[in-house]
Amino acid sequence: MLKPLESTARQGLDIITMQKIYLASDHAGYELKEALTPFLRERGFEIEDLGPHTFDQSDDYPDYLFLLAGKVAQNKGSFGIGIGGTGQGEAMAANRVKGVRAAVYYGGLEDIIKLSREHNDANVLCLGARFLSAEEAQSAVELWLSTPFSGEERHLRRIKKLDT
Question: Looking at the whole model, is its pTM more than 0.85?
Answer without folding.
Answer: yes
